[in-house]
Design goal:
Shape: globular
Strand content: 15-25%
Number of helices: 9
Oligomer: single chain
Largest sheet: 7 strands, mixed
Distance between the termini: 57 Å
Radius of gyration: 19 Å
């Protein structure tokens, strides 16, 4: 078995740059889209910032930028990474009661993070934009099947249509919507093990020792096909709170 990689935040760049993990590209550029909408913005929120890696890539940031992070192991990483940029990291919050004033933000971005539409609407300033890239509820089905896992949250029906309906029901206007099917590919078992230790809700009790049988089965699949594929279907929504 190859060497596992220590991953911080939601930053999988070490695995990707080494060629041991590959994600299917989507037809949109989330980074470029966010940069476009950042122009002239003074108050921005990044929901589920991880270790702040993506937010840093957007610098220079608006003068009043906040980030939320609900996964405790990432909080101190985000605080350390984002402190030089003047970003305030918020943790220990409830999704349905975020600690921000009504109509506060001019731009809210969300990459693969849960959100409560009503609460996002409340804290977003009228006429301003909420951008989210999400993964569909079938994400990583192949991994779950291989490890016979029972993830903590079951959101199989989560997808573009449901997200659009929820946002519209809470007052948002939809400016753009796109979706794309794809995969995450792993070329060795240690790469997948590194991934599972970060995305630890997929196989909550994962360890190489406990799941040695499944790891051996994974080795066989990779030896035969040169890779192991995991479902990664995504969608993008650009929405606005009406004036």
């Amino acid at each position: 078995m190859s060497k596992e990689i220590n991953i911080t935040g939601w930053d999988f760049s070490k695995l990707i740059e080494s060629g041991r993990m590959k994600e299917t590209k989507v037809p949109w550029n989330y980074h470029s889209i966010v940069k476009q909408y950042m122009q002239g913005v003074k108050r921005m929120l990044d929901m589920g910032t991880g270790g702040g890696e993506f937010l840093i890539s957007l610098a220079p940031l608006p003068e009043d930028t906040f980030a939320t992070e609900g996964y405790q192991p990432n909080v101190s990483i985000a605080e350390e990474n984002l402190k030089p940029y003047g970003v305030k990291v918020i943790s220990g919050y409830k999704d349905d009661k975020l600690p921000f004033e009504n109509n506060y933000f001019e731009l809210i971005i969300n990459r693969h993070e849960f959100y409560e539409p009503r609460e996002v609407y409340r804290i977003l300033k009228p006429g301003c934009v909420f951008i989210t890239q999400q993964v569909k509820g079938n994400c990583d089905d192949t991994i779950i099947e291989l490890f016979n896992a029972n993830p903590e949250a079951d959101s199989k029906d989560w997808g573009l249509d449901k997200a659009v309906k929820e946002l519209m029901a809470n007052g948002f206007e939809i400016h753009d919507k796109q979706e794309a099917n794809g995969f995450t590919e792993f070329t060795d078992t240690a790469a997948l093990a590194s991934y599972l230790k970060v995305i630890n809700w997929l196989v909550p009790d994962f360890s190489v020792h406990k799941y040695s049988h499944e790891i051996n089965e994974l080795e066989t699949i990779i030896s035969k096909h040169g890779k192991f594929r995991s479902t990664l279907d995504r969608f993008l929504l650009i929405t606005q709170k009406p004036l």
